[in-house]
Fold this protein.
Amino acid sequence: MSRKSDSQIRRSAGIGPRIPEWALLLLPFIALTPNFFIIPDLAYPGNATLEVAMGWTTTALLALGIAAIALYRPHLEPTRRQIQIFAPLALFLLWQTVSLIWAPDWAEGVRVASVWFAFTVFFGTGLLTLTQSGTGRLYYALTALALILSISQAYEYRLYGNEMFGVFFSHGITTELLALIIPLQIVVYVTNRSRAIALISIATAAAGGAAIVLTLRRGAMLGILVAFVLVGVALLRGWLKPAERWRVIAVAAAAVLFLTGPLMFKRDYFIERLRSAFEIRTASVGHVTDIGLTSRLTKWFTTLEMIRHNPVMGVGQGGFSAKYGEARRSFVENPLYARIAQASEAEDFDELRSPQAHNEYLQIFAELGLIGILLFATFWFGVLRTLWRARSSDQSVWAIGALAGLTAFGISSAMSAFSFRFAPGGFITACIAAIGCAAALRETNTSEQQISNFRFPKAAAIGLLSALIVVSGAMLFRAQNVLASQKTQSQNDFRYSLESQSFNDSVQRRYRQVLHYDPANSGAHLGFALLLYQMKRPAEGIPHAEYALMHGYSRPYTFLVLAFLYEATGDTARAQQLIDECLASYPRSLITRAYNIVLLQKLGENELAEKQQRILEEHDRKNGRSWFLALTMKDEDSDAAAKREGLMTPRGLEPMLVRGLVHARAYHYLDKPY
């Protein structure tokens, strides 16, 4: 064991300098902060309540850092290795901030950057302050978190089966966090000589593994299997010293059970999920379909098109959703992707909001360009290299446990839309990385640590942290406004009356309050546009629908809303132009294709209308015809016509949201058949 440096001696001299270290124990529990209200249908992309909690936590940690430096330290003295790890992260965060200059959706960019800002503060605090005893305490806090998440997953599965949405947050986020924490539990179980601690660790790992199996998230399961392999290699090479041989056998049995358990308990569902991960399947246009690999490839190749057009600078932090429709058009037009485009999901059923890339690395590349992805990779390479170098040291338990957990999380991130875009990932990844790196650096050669240590004067350190508090405060202020907006918007979306003006007026007042708190709330803009359409005030609704379209809601539904609004103002040509743009990006949308035929007929473009009719029939003749009837007749007449032709009545068409929109158009604006 190497001799402690002067800064380490000062840090361990009393409770005062270690207050930030003790504060880290709260992070796993703050990460469980749920929303205390019903999330709006047209919701903010993140978790508003948790992001406020994250903002307060970040600000508090920075304030504690100032207090500790002011009262107890003559100066701040990070080691050369700490600086090498931390510098790329700071530059990555700075590049995110710079990219907001050209980002098409600054609000989403600030939201994602705030997660990274919090991660930076949490990780930096752990890297600089975690002692050996503090590492153990933080491990116990993460153990409690894993048990809580596992129990919540099992409870929800018992109630709802495979239809799970998450108790604290989505089950996708829950599964990724468990994949991050479980490997460290396994390593502690194998190596810790205390049988009580070993029992708690294996129970936690077993509960977490069972929770992952319940949802069969493919990325997390693959990550856990790779982590098992890494731990096995560490045992074979002697980097980990098992406390008892039978524990190694127990872990090997657990790995086998984790691999075969889905075949034993959820065979059909597991085989279906496995097959869909490797087969390119064609979606049914008439209804929603889970097509696994095809859906992922559609998003990944769309992301590659975005990267191809913005390779160096990217589209700006948080700009992926805003640019998705534009990139989707490039994907559809590229002959290299023709097979995938033809097999892609039924677009009328895809989410209202533009999806994420479902690959963290591709999305970072798309948003932050080559510069951003290189800074991201440099930081994580430094972290993993630090952990790897400590694999055979006295701190190998923490180093290998963190390395295995981060590897599992990293593999899951290649197939996920959650990792560093939602607050829980920022909280818990920082904890695991800090545990491993702080422990690994304790084993760094004494002379290497003490040579070239950088002395940060007390005044400069306090000044820097004070500036960061100002930034954190600004992010917190934004998060609180978002939370107030989301609470006010709750249960307000898609609520309107076809006849009661007073009811619509009350909903309108609520939307104005929503947008007062957060003018960048694109979901509320879309909801307000829908309400104004019902109130027969289409000209007022157009700016709101256009805002939503340009800020993350570039899906067929929003194109339809905006086109309906323009049609209602008499600008049929602009409505038809919008529908052409929509079909260029989403050619398999039945309702959009049917509406295009209606608009072309109104404009007297009969030859083009006939061409669109042939395409519609190739996709789905019966459902396409039903949509056409719904767009050209009042409800009673369209139902009667559909029955005569042996079609599904428009009242039974899916998706329901589109059907409701078409129904409102027929009720308010369709005075006579076309």
Summary: The first strand starts at residue 75 and ends at 76. The two ends are 85 Å apart (CA to CA). The chain has a mean pLDDT of 87. Residues 18 and 582 are 57 Å apart (CA to CA).
